[in-house]
Design brief:
It is built from no helices and 13 strands. It is mainly β and about 180 residues long. Strands 3, 5, 6, 8, 10, 11 and 12 form a 7-stranded antiparallel sheet that branches.
């Protein structure tokens, strides 16, 4: 039996820990003579906090449940197209890769970490899991001369019988950004 499942993923992104200072070990020999200025930056010029801005959320479009609903959907990083496997079928809808911008101190290397998995849910009880995140980032992502780094990201959506109630599944992806 086939039935339509309007299945849209809108992943709201939550940046965590981006601007938290790290406590130094030992005594600062210049702290008494050169106190840090007011505001952020730890007393160093141009050492501004990192900011993560989400330009677009991920969206897997619409899916059709066939049978048990066990399957997976891969959102291609290069093209943004979706590949559907298992007891699911593509039911159209626009797919969108996630796009983000990191801003901070120019020419600094940053570390951007995604979680191992995120559970997506719907008010009617539908559930799925988003895993295997991929990004367009290089091995050592570095902010440009303007202190900016743009990147795209995708993941693989895993569904089980728990998605059978359907709906609009949502979740938050806690992306952590720190200076390396």
């Amino acid at each position: 039996m086939r039935f339509a499942l309007p299945f849209v993923l809108t992943a709201a992104i939550l940046a965590s820990g981006a601007g938290a200072p790290v406590l130094a070990q030992g005594k600062c020999s210049f702290c008494d003579t050169n106190p840090p200025p007011n505001g952020t930056g730890g007393g160093r010029p141009n050492n501004r906090a990192l900011d993560l801005e989400i330009q677009s959320d991920m969206d897997f479009g619409r899916l059709l449940i066939i049978g048990s609903g066990d399957g997976r959907v891969i959102l291609d990083l290069a093209t943004g197209s979706k590949m559907v496997f298992g007891d699911l079928d593509d039911f159209g809808g626009l797919t969108v890769q996630g796009r983000a911008t990191v801003r901070g101190r120019p020419l600094r290397t940053v570390r951007i970490d995604f979680p191992g998995s995120v559970t997506l849910s719907d008010a009617r009880g539908g559930r799925a899991e988003l895993r295997e995140f991929k990004t367009s980032l290089r091995a050592l992502p570095t902010l440009d001369a303007n202190g900016q780094l743009d990147f795209t990201y995708t993941g693989t959506l895993y569904t089980t019988a728990a998605v059978a109630s359907g709906g609009t599944l949502r979740g938050r992806i806690p992306i952590q950004v720190d200076y390396d």
